[in-house]
Amino acid sequence: MNNLLRILFILALFFLLWVKQSVYLLYMLPLLWLVSYRDFTKLNIRVIKSIIFFNLGVSVGYIIVSYTKGISPIEFLLYINLKVYMLTYFVFYFFSKVDIVEFFAFSKELSYLLMISLSQIISYKKSFEEFRLAYKARVVKKLRQREKGFTTTVFEFFLKKALSDSKERTLAMKARGFFDQV
User: Fewer Cβ within 10 Å of end Cβ, the chain: N or C?
Assistant: First the structure.
């Protein structure tokens, strides 16, 4: 059954990647929503939170470039935003129904990378929650100036932590033969 799910997931993912017309994506979107009708609201919130900044950045950049070149950006923007939304929605829905650890259990290397990623996500989530609670405990009123400083400090901490963690994990992966010399 797991192999069948893997194959179906990969086929569906490639099919979504293969579609090149916004019209077809618009036809498939209600079908995707219909399949996930029970989780529709929760999934939409997660998807929009996950892609909003990426899509805004890409869209604004493309609008600027297209207007300087005299190209209408509407068709491409509709296509790329729909594609990102549908792929993200599909992946979130699929892995809400299938255990991600079991899904990647067929490969020792992918399982190892998944465990590294999940441990890093959990560690960062815990650190952020501790920062948030510490900030709430020390500030009675919401002071915008302090929030800006807090946000900058937390961002700086996570950037340094990410760089440090990535160096450490790279060394650990090299020690385990992950980056074999070609």
Answer: C
